[in-house]
């Protein structure tokens, strides 16, 4: 497909199972629908998740991502459709019999039990011998670096420590599938970043398949092997993080993940590796280096990410993908600067620029007329 | 400014305390009065306590009261917990408003009406199925359970409403079946509410005069009934001593209930 994904395949020796053609999925979600009265929370979702994946369900509130997760855990019964985990139909299996554990957004630690007893709870229900329970609890608490706090009650722990206890409690039973509902949502920014990487390492070490629900696109990008973007009860796109970012399949995905400039225009020419679009918004031509299947003179949007746009005082030597405007807003953010440029058509374009040098004496600033340009390979045509 | 405010606050607190506790304190002091006349002070003595414990009628009434209070508090906790669960966990169902109305009715219904309606019910039931045969201990227990249940249901319902339901989901997720879940998670978490509900029911039952007067039979007088009948013949220092002891029991129960509720709040927040 794209040059970047070829590069990835060469680099990694093991081809991830979701890229293999005939690979057997570990979790199969088959035409799942969930209705609450008249409201359809999840609408006919089909999704395959493979062994050892860290799959992120990403969506805003009310997108149905949490309901889907709760159906995997068994707390909600699907209105129609079925879920298979490791080949076993889960439809009539109660939550306490599923090979699945969940880490709750609120952590749901039992307030009357110590950290140790919280973690041991699941093993005791399984009937594991007390000697082994103690061993496994100690082992997992060491793994999340909480061995020294095992006798404390949850209300004596900090937010980050509670999060680790919740994680340990969900992992200690060695489930086939671990569900995480906004696992980092309650942590502050710094701790969240640290924990993200710890979570990835832990998943790698234990080889358990993770399904993470989040509304935070950055979190999904960092954590996920693949992302399923959800909107209004359906899945809009399932792809690897860089594909979701670079090749969104709809305006919704493009706008939900990161910032994007969308230019509207009419298709005027289409070849095998080049589509030409006439856009009044940039007062010129847009060229995209891939074909789209659309009717002639269809109205489409072209998505260009802010960091893919070049900004300059001199007119670039190009017949397409270029326009000019005036800087209306400028923000210095340390590692990068953000510019907002007003085009003649009134359209506002967002551009980010890396601050590669320290010297800002010659920087572009408010009210300066500038030219914008980007490569045909940096933009994507969106038809929906 | 702040000092002035705290002066007003402590002033009103002091006034409140005097207003509430002055009668009780004077009662307690006079229970140690040596004189036979209630209003004349003649020195310290515990002779009224001694004569109290030699009075068989009062001892029997006290034993009956404690027995009735303990049994009806226990029954009220069991039934009230069930009612509380239904009200907070069953979602919407037909007759929910009726049930919640029924549960809270005894809180606002005058005791005279509760007592009278129960008496009529017992009489009607006796003539229809021969049970309860006569009135006495059993009917007092049933009557007290009925109105104490309301208090327990309200306490349990509010506790369940503030209980994070994901705790129960987490327990299920970790392999606990609903019965295990109830005893290992839900019950310990609502235990403080149950204990304070029990203590509250116990004191309410111990204090009740009106309802017990309606539904008790001959020879089954509870402590408040005995006190009331004695007071009609004039207040004796013995009654002061008895009242002091009852205040002690009730105070211990109420303080225990408050302490337990406080501890529970520390958990959840």
Automatic annotation (TrEMBL), chain A:
Enzyme class, broadest EC rank: translocase
Gene3D superfamilies assigned to the protein according to its UniProt record, in alphabetical order: 2.40.50.100, P-loop containing nucleotide triphosphate hydrolases
Keywords from the named record: ATP-binding, Cell inner membrane, Cell membrane, Membrane, Nucleotide-binding, Translocase, Transport
SUPFAM superfamilies, sorted: MOP-like, P-loop containing nucleoside triphosphate hydrolases
Chain ranges of the ABC transporter domain: 27-257
Record carries keyword Translocase: yes
PROSITE patterns the record matches: ABC_TRANSPORTER_1, ABC_TRANSPORTER_2
Annotated InterPro entries: AAA+_ATPase (IPR003593), ABC_SmlMolc_Importer (IPR050093), ABC_transporter-like_ATP-bd (IPR003439), ABC_transporter-like_CS (IPR017871), Mo/tungstate-bd_C_term_dom (IPR008995), P-loop_NTPase (IPR027417), PotA-like (IPR005893), Transp-assoc_OB_typ2 (IPR013611)
Keyword rRNA-binding on entry: no
EC number: 7.6.2.11
Reaction it catalyzes: ATP + H2O + polyamine-[polyamine-binding protein]Side 1 = ADP + phosphate + polyamineSide 2 + [polyamine-binding protein]Side 1
Pfam families (UniProt xref): ABC_tran, TOBE_2
One Gene Ontology molecular-function label: ATP binding
Subunit-level organization: The complex is composed of two ATP-binding proteins (PotA), two transmembrane proteins (PotB and PotC) and a solute-binding protein (PotD).
PANTHER family according to UniProt: PUTRESCINE TRANSPORT ATP-BINDING PROTEIN POTG, SPERMIDINE/PUTRESCINE IMPORT ATP-BINDING PROTEIN POTA
Function: Part of the ABC transporter complex PotABCD involved in spermidine/putrescine import. Responsible for energy coupling to the transport system.
Listed NCBIfam families: potA
Family of this protein: Belongs to the ABC transporter superfamily. Spermidine/putrescine importer (TC 3.A.1.11.1) family.
Listed name of the protein: Spermidine/putrescine import ATP-binding protein PotA
Organism whose genome encodes this protein: Marinomonas colpomeniae
The encoding gene: potA
């Amino acid at each position: 497909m794209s040059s970047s994904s070829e590069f990835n395949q060469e680099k990694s020796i093991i081809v991830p199972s979701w890229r293999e053609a005939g690979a057997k999925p570990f979790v199969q979600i088959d035409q799942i629908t969930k209705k609450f009265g008249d409201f359809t929370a999840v609408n006919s979702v089909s999704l395959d998740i493979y062994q050892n994946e860290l799959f992120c369900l990403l969506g805003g509130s009310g997108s149905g991502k949490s309901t889907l997760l709760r159906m995997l855990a068994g707390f909600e019964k699907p209105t129609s459709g079925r879920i298979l985990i490791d080949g076993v139909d889960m439809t009539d299996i109660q939550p306490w019999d599923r090979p699945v554990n969940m880490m709750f957004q609120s952590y749901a630690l039992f307030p009357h039990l110590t950290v140790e007893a919280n973690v041991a709870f699941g093993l005791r229900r399984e009937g594991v011998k007390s000697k082994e329970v103690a061993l496994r609890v100690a082992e997992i608490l060491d793994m999340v670096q909480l061995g020294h706090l095992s006798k404390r009650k949850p209300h004596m722990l900090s937010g980050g420590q509670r999060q680790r206890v919740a994680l340990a409690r969900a992992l200690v039973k060695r489930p086939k599938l671990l569900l995480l509902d906004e696992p980092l949502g309650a942590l502050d920014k710094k701790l969240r970043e640290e924990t993200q990487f710890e979570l990835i390492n832990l998943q790698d070490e234990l080889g358990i398949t993770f399904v993470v629900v989040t509304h935070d696109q950055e979190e999904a990008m960092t954590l996920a092997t693949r992302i399923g973007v959800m909107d209004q009860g359906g899945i809009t796109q399932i792809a690897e993080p860089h594909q979701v970012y670079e090749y969104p399949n709809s305006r919704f995905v493009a706008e939900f993940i990161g910032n994007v400039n969308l230019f509207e225009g009419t298709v005027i020419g289409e070849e095998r590796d080049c589509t030409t679009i006439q856009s009044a918004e940039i007062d010129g031509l847009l060229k995209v280096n891939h074909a789209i299947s659309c009717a002639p003179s269809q109205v489409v949007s072209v998505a260009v990410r802010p960091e893919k746009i070049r900004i300059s005082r001199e007119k670039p030597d190009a017949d397409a993908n270029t326009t000019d405007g005036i800087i209306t807003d400028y923000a210095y953010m340390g590692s990068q600067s953000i510019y907002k440029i007003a085009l003649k058509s009134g359209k506002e374009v967002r551009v980010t620029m890396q601050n590669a040098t320290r010297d800002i004496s010659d920087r572009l600033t408010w009210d300066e007329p500038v030219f914008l340009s980007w490569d045909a390979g940096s933009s994507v045509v969106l038809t929906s | 400014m702040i000092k002035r405010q705290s002066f007003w606050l402590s002033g009103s607190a002091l006034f409140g305390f005097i207003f509430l506790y002055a009668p009780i304190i004077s009662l307690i002091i006079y229970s140690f009065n040596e004189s036979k006349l209630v209003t004349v002070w003649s020195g310290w003595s515990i002779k009224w306590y001694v004569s109290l414990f030699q009075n068989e009628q009062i001892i029997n009434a006290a034993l009956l009261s404690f027995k009735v209070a303990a049994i009806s508090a226990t029954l009220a906790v069991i039934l009230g917990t069930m009612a509380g669960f239904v009200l907070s966990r069953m979602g919407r169902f037909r007759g929910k408003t009726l049930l919640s109305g029924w549960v809270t009715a005894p809180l606002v219904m005058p005791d005279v009406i509760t007592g009278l309606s129960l008496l009529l019910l017992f009489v009607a039931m006796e003539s229809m199925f021969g049970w309860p045969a006569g009135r006495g201990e059993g009917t007092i227990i049933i009557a007290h359970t009925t109105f104490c249940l309301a208090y327990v249901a309200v306490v349990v319902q509010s506790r369940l409403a503030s209980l994070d339901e994901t705790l129960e989901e987490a327990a299920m997720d970790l392999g606990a079946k609903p019965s295990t879940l109830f005893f290992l998670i839900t019950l310990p978490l609502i235990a403080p509410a149950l204990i304070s509900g029990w203590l509250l029911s116990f004191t309410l039952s111990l204090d009740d005069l009106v309802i017990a007067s309606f539904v008790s039979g001959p020879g089954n007088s509870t402590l408040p009934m005995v006190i009331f009948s004695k007071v009609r013949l004039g207040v004796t220092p013995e009654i002061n001593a008895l009242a002091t002891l009852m205040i002690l029991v009730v105070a211990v129960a109420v303080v225990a209930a408050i302490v337990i509720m406080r501890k529970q709040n520390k958990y959840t927040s």
